[in-house]
Amino acid sequence: MKTRFKQYFLHITLVFLLSLGVFASFLFGQNALAQNKTLYWGSTGNDVNKVQYKLSQWGFYKGSVDGVFGAKTSQAVKSFQARNGLSPDGVVGDNTWERLGYSVRDDAWGSPPRQEDKAEVAQWSSRGNAQTRDRNGTYLLAKVIAGEARGEPYLGKVAVGAVMLNRVQSSAFPNTLAGVVYQPLAFESVSNGQYGRPVDQESLKAARQVMSGWDPTNGALYFWNPAKRVSPWIWSRNITMRIGKHVYGI
Question: Considering the chain, what percentage of its residues have pLDDT values greater than 90?
Fold first, then answer.
């Protein structure tokens, strides 16, 4: 009797362990799938909306935000990748997601979409609202601050960001932050890809304060490092102040 009971118990235990192993394999497989949101020609859905919306904000994509990855989206992705030092293959993988300002999702399998995720999808589909644009703009501004003002004092980081927003307000420059940032050869860190490095907390804080209205430059439209080779034209600008290694002018 005891022998039969032991055999039965071992059988039940074995079945349980095998079932658990199958479930774990499925669970981790689903997580791995969720972590690799690769998009390419023919992909559809909300993730495509995200890409189309962000690229349209930055002037790379001119089509409708319809969640369909077609010819226009593919070309926009390739142009964005080339500008950001990535292989222009038209495939949105981990590196392209990061350059777009998104982290690769690592949500637990089976967890329901968060309310903020649902709201953001609706915003992307309808071209976004002011809050979303401000958040995306702050991160883009922080990226360029980190690239242009690395090693500068905190006030210098704020000043560099303020110059970018001052340009947005000037009729002599594009009227969007993305347009100013990606204007050809406007910022060295964008041209050479250094602005794609991880953003430090001080640069992010500086960007937030600039977006809140702090301008220590009093309206400057230019900054440059006199110790570096620059265009002779820049010296025709009226220098208004110096912060750290940069001079600022209008």
Answer: 38
